[in-house]
Amino acid sequence: VYRGAVRVDQGSLRVDAEQITVEYEDQKVVRIVAQGGPATYRQELENPSGEVVAQATNITYLTRDERLELHGGAFLSQQGNEISGDTIVYDMVAGRVEAVSGEGSPVRMVLQPAARQR
User: How far is CA 73 from the centre of its chain?
Assistant: First the structure.
């Protein structure tokens, strides 16, 4: 557990938060939990996915599953597409995003049109 203005960098991955917990199994990082007002996540994924930028009160990155879980004021941006809600779960392998919000605070999405092929 690391506290204060904490930053974790690994390759193109960067996580910033007030508190970060890093969990290891067999000397490999399996989970990064970031908490703070707010925590941020940034990572360049392989083409054509591009860079993912996320922000939430609590961020959990499950490295083996390549899954990002955002809780509390969750925001996710990739290739100009944006989604926000109370909770967002992003499966990076499947490219699937699930978002949930409570009553009175809807899930909000901004989606870019698909590029036309010429």
Answer: 12
pLDDT digits (tens, 9 = 90+) for 39-80: 999 998 776 668 999 999 999 999 999 999 999 999 999 988
39, 57 contact by CB (below 8 A): yes
Note whether 58 and 71 are within 8 A (CB).
Answer: yes
Q: Which of 23, 84, 33, 19 is nearest to 55 (CA)?
A: 84
pTM of the model: 0.89
Distance (Å, whole) CA 118 – CA 12? 32
Distance CA 109, CA 2 (A): 33
